[in-house]
Request: fold
Amino acid sequence: MTKILVIYASDYGNTEKMARAAAEGVEAVDGTTVTVKQAEEVTAGDWTTSDGVLLGSPVHMGSMDWRVKKMIDTVCSGLWMQDKMNGKVAGVFTSGGGFGNAGGGTELAMLAMLNNFAELGMLIVPLPKMTGDYKHGGLHWGPYGRSADSNMENVGVSEEALAVCRRHGTHLTRAAAAMQNRDIFAP
Ligand SMILES: Cc1cc2nc3c(=O)[nH]c(=O)nc-3n(C[C@H](O)[C@H](O)[C@H](O)COP(=O)(O)O)c2cc1C
Reply:
């Protein structure tokens, strides 16, 4: 059994939709269980009992949501100190308004979260460009759902972006299954 934890923060529901789509992608793989939780609900036990973690955040001021960062600093710092997550797989996704038509800081938000995963010794699952609908909802780092149109009116994340989230969830789950119970790192 492969256990995947999907974590998100969301004010207006866009990142939550992406989290739910990613969870559907996880469930598409046989022999999998998925837990979907908001960042503020997550415990250290949720992390340590998982084989893989998918973390989603709205883009806030070109970085991750404060609730996600709070979880990193409070829940994950102990796991980092104790090397609890080494060798498990991890991936990210973001939702942003996209002001300026260049992602509005989404890459920075993704990279900040991926940096945290690297600190935790986790194996990062990227989003290859051959992934279906990548051109409508992807970056190399993970799925990106733009929630505003070019006039910055909120239109919500697209079905294509949600489809990319599903694929990302499936990819990460396959990676987690392949890496399960393997000792990769040695002191
Ligand atoms: C405090 C705050 C800061 C934001 N900063 C950015 C930003 O830097 N770049 C961006 O593209 N969108 C920004 N947004 C827009 C949100 O990222 C966007 O609306 C997102 O889809 C919200 O996700 P949610 O529905 O899951 O809350 C910001 C929104 C808020 C509330």
